[in-house]
Amino acid sequence: MRLAAATLAAAFAAAACAPVDALNALTPNEGVRRVAELRYAEGPRGRLDLYLPPGEVAADAPLLVFFHGGGWRSGAKEDYRFLGTAFAARGFLVAIPNYRLVPEVRWPAFAEDGAAAVAALPRLLAGQGLGASRPLVLAGHSAGAHTAAMLALDPRWLGAHGLSPCRDVAALLGLAGPYAIFPTGARMVVAAFGPAPQPAEVSPLAQVSAAAPPAVLIAGASDTLVSPRNSEALAEALARAGRPAALHLLPGVGHIDLIAAVAAPLRHTAPTLEVAVSALRAALAATPRACA
């Protein structure tokens, strides 16, 4: 991580554990309630955690479903308590699912699991005494942003559960997503998508249409792992389709910096949370699009 040395030193000293554990340990709960290990599918990865805003949950509070990154081969919902807490404290209901990973599976299992989690949320929210009819935001970082974008743009995955991206997805929040997947031979891509992935099938960039939801795309201008050109290209494609896309490239910010800055101890390093919340509120206020 390219983080402030003093901040990281304090985090490790306080938590004496891995960086993400330190961030979670130093993140105040801000009155947020966490409901853990809700089952959306069979198997050890078919669980999600739900974060509820403080006090009484507003009937129109948006539901943000966040898919974690990790190159489709690592990561867990527990690692992102800092993110669930941050967005819930600002009025969002937040769901963070696990999903199956390489080498157990490869594409399209990530999209299938993501869609299953979204489809299960009305039942899971009802089990918490919450209404399910609320604006849905699909969000993710890195590989998780790829999944969020595929669910928001390609009707196959939610359609398998009787849902429509155009009708049922109010906004997309992508953080440093790889929106263009090509058969480059890169080990990570081969492991996740096979030796010859077809861009028209696996790239969010190829799924853009006039039915796309408003998008908020945030990337670090200094990201050397997933080029910010991915976010620029998706924003341009959405604009050509006549769809609103708020693009924010944060100067001096790298791939991990972008997401770590959501945690309370590191918010001074990048305005990821402030930009995301402000832009999402604007996107959710946009005029609804026409759906077939």
TrEMBL record:
Residues 48-153 form the BD-FAE-like domain. Keywords: Hydrolase, Signal. GO terms for molecular function: hydrolase activity. Pfam families: BD-FAE. It comes from the Bacteria. Residues 1-18 form the signal peptide. This is Alpha/beta hydrolase.
